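Limitations

Structures in this collection are predictions, not experimental determinations, and the ligand pose is part of the prediction. Treat each record accordingly. The example that follows, with alpha-D-glucopyranose as the small molecule, is included so readers can see exactly what is and is not provided: the inputs are given verbatim, and the output is the predicted complex.
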Amino acid sequence: MKKTITLAFVFVSIFAFSQQQTVDQKVKALLKQMTLEEKIGQLNQYTSNDAATGPITINNNKQNEIKKGLIGSMLNVMGTKRTRQYQELAMQSRLKIPLLFGLDVIHGYKTTFPIPLAEAASWDLTTIELAARVAATEAAASGIHWTFAPMVDISRDPRWGRVMEGAGEDTYLGSKIAYARVKGFQGNLGDVNSVMACVKHFAAYGAAVGGRDYNSVDMSNRMLWETYLPPFKAALDAGAATFMNSFNDLNGIPASANNYLLRDILKGKWNFQGFVVSDWGSIGEMVNHGYVKDNKEAALASITAGSDMDMESNAYRYNLEQLVKENKVPVALIDDAVKRILRKKFELGLFDDPYKFCNTEREQKEMNNPEHTKAAREMAAKSIVLLKNERDVLPLSKGLKTIAFIGPMVKPKRDNHGFWAVDVKEIDSTYIVSQWEGLENKVGKRTKILYAKGCGVESNSKEGFADALNVASQAEVIILSIGENFNKSGEAKSKSNLHLPGVQEDLIKELQKTGKPIVILINAGRPLVIDWIADNMPTIVYTWWLGSEAGNAIADVLFGDYNPSGKLPMSFPRIEGQIPIYYNHFNTGRPSVNEDKIYKSAYIDLPTTPKFPFGYGLSYTTFEYSDLKLSQKTIKNNESITVSVNIKNTGSVKGEEVVQLYLRDKVGSVVRPIIELKDFQKITLNKGETKTIQFTIDNQKLSFYNNALEFGSEPGDFDLMIGSSSADIRLRDSFELVK
Ligand code: GLC
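Predicted complex:
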């Protein structure tokens, strides 16, 4: 039997190797036929004129340039009809090299999933992978070969609008989610329901000074390796086909021409074989950075550093040929970039059939199909975080006679898409289930729902308050849906003030006077500052932006058809002045916990703890943790510890719990965080059920980057913590690592 398996493995390996050999041979043969101008064409990417996801320079000559083989990829072209039209132009070029079509399919294509930060709150890697799989299936059915996702930027700063697009503040959770998303998007790359992933933004874009988008990033290489690079490496380990560089300068060198990032790390140490696309215009923007004098120098710096494809800056298009003629850029550099791009086009099967992804029947079949809608509803429900449920107002009884559903987020559809919904032209919101529709679907005729908008999102008018109070007076329960509009987080949406805009909080205070139970739904793309609400309102649900099935998923949770299980992927600040705020911080020489001392690392006007901590989220049931056992209390480098713990559902309904395992390395050659997430398991328990779960602590989980950037563990004591959040540690133990 064993012999058979070995033989099969050998055969498969030879086959795979020969396949790759074939691709490399084809690439080599094609490259030999290409003129320098055609090679440079492959490094050039333009957007369609329909949609700009950046500052656009209109160029009405693109179609002619495609016919001449001067463009290798287009972005923001959607649909089998339009992609076919563009591909037909490419087929008129001398060598008939097919175009690559890229698009920001960040959280769904036609079926929209929750924004990525919301998905991260589910801590459900299987469902997150499924969400990406559905997005890829629909995008690929619409002619798309390549999504500019996953965005894997760690961020500890909710002022930065793009936190909505990532997986939050934690490196371990972010790495697991990056891996899952790449696997979901790429599936079996080359299939017609798969798209290339593009890991972005390389690197450290989420650490922009002041939370201001595109701003500078300055950090030690140790911090870069320890906190910001691991999700990129995880995505690469998942087989990511492409990377995208970031807009920011990192330690003074723009990412687009950052040799350390692109050559030393990505293509060197990590041996990345795919290709790197610049972010929109970022190569040309190095002139603004003051890193280069002009686009010609920008092209030189970027191609030399390892940026393979130029999105929308024209730097490569109009300068590379001259740079080669001036012997400033060796043709070998151009060839390497071209080979990386051609290899992907061969692997996708585009040379065999350039219209492989342009199948109109598949396009009709795949969009918004019931299976996808079901997946979106499940992902949305799992992304919802229950922040407070004092007096057990939730779940609502299905016997309620009258509900007042109030607020500016109740009826709009578009907002539920969140930012980065696929809306190259105008978004098709018809199939979005609004929060109002979701409640109607849930209660049917048995419950009367009264509506009042109450106020606008950003307006300061209180005209609607009277109407709101009127419907509230007629209802047994008030549901109030508020927040920030979808386009107030996302790219170029940094905010200095994270409080609820307009008079929404005033509306809450007015409704609070009725004395009626109020369920508050907060819709946002980022952690908001909700200090007063959190202190004064007993029932709060964070609903982010949940996508197509928002209304149904919210109703599922409100009525207990789904017991909320989300856990915050980011710390919620009490006020903006606390930012950056994150759970895995260092202890300092004068720890803030020393409440009785004057001299401590703390604010004199505010606690240093967040309003809601990383990993926090409630359920309609409760969980008891017990019987923490370690297989050994002392381990050597090559050994591991098996940790087991019992989790019991001590409540009255079935529920899911994210059991979190944290470590603290007590002493290190560089200071270590007071707590670090090192593993988690999301488990489902029926009421009264107990499960024993196990974790393995191996040397990898004890390792970190020392001052010499060596990754490894150091002997010493470790605290082990098992908790329901980073601030709700239920069981503790310790162990020692010995030489
Ligand atoms: C944007 C974004 C990037 C996106 C690209 C193409 O500026 O920074 O994430 O993929 O341009 O739309």
